[in-house]
Amino acid sequence: TSKKATGESGGKPEVMGVLISHPEKELWPGISKLDLAHYYEEVGDWLLPHIKGIPCSIVRAPDGFKKETFFQRHSMPGQSKMLDEIKVSGDRKPYVVINRVEGLAAVAQLGGLELHPWNCLPDQPDVPGRLVFDLDPDPGVDFSEVIATAKLFKDWLEALGLVPFCKTTGGKGLHVVVPLAPGKSKVGWPETKDFCRELCDRIAADAPEKYVVNMAKAKRKGRIFLDYLRNDRMSTAVAPLSTRAREGATVAMPLNWPQVKAGLDPKKYTIETAWAALKKSKAWSDYAKSAKPLQTALERMKKSR
Ligand code: ATP
Ligand code: MN
Ligand code: MN
């Protein structure tokens, strides 16, 4: 499909109707800005439901991931018409939101290497739309420990009646993600965050030599930091299939649980390999229909105290 939608205009290539300037500029070694635009075009329809209607910060690295990067939250005057903006209470300045696939080409044009949406429901910043358990291993920790920890979260979350999914981050750890439905009782962010903290606390209490639920870096030595802090109104987590401004042009790769086992190598999933691998694995294909309200899980957690 990428060839069809790619045109030329005045010598500059066009992707999804967006002119790409300096298309040959290298963002990672051997990977150009035009390559990034084509990648977003390929994965756009899959990726969009995870970010549509949701404030989405962008890590921009206009001269490549090794040069200066900046984290853009707010929309800017004169930004591409393919991008949208969203106002949220408590902030005068509107946030960037990507509501159509063409917006992803505009992101590539900006040198946007990473997408970091909030975790709310579309168009409802105050309603949690997913839980993210961000497993952050200290450099000394073997990756097999991170894999085992993700599976431990899976068992807990399933016992609580939720449907967890796993993705690589394109970096050092894994994310366990739970899609949420709004439900009748409209559980808000404070309760949601408390729930996540309690789950992390319980898992850490069973193996304090392996885990910390504390921000303090000193306590993380040789342990996995169970980062529950993604679960708040303005907190972000990298989007599935987002590329990373890191060595090797890795992406945050959606996985099937059977793939979360010994031998899993996050470095294998890159801007060049991820889409073909996902078409084959069909990971996360039942993500949307797996969304559950948090209410039942809150009650089960309470009962098991
Ligand atoms: P890794 O597996 O290497 O930890 P990660 O994406 O989980 O990769 P973290 O540093 O654990 O990286 O951060 C988790 C999430 O928190 C990120 O995906 C990002 O959305 C958000 N985040 C982290 N640091 C920042 C920051 N300095 N500014 C804004 N958001 C951040
Ligand atoms: Mn992390
Ligand atoms: Mn973290």
From TrEMBL:
Protein name from the UniProt record: DNA ligase (ATP)
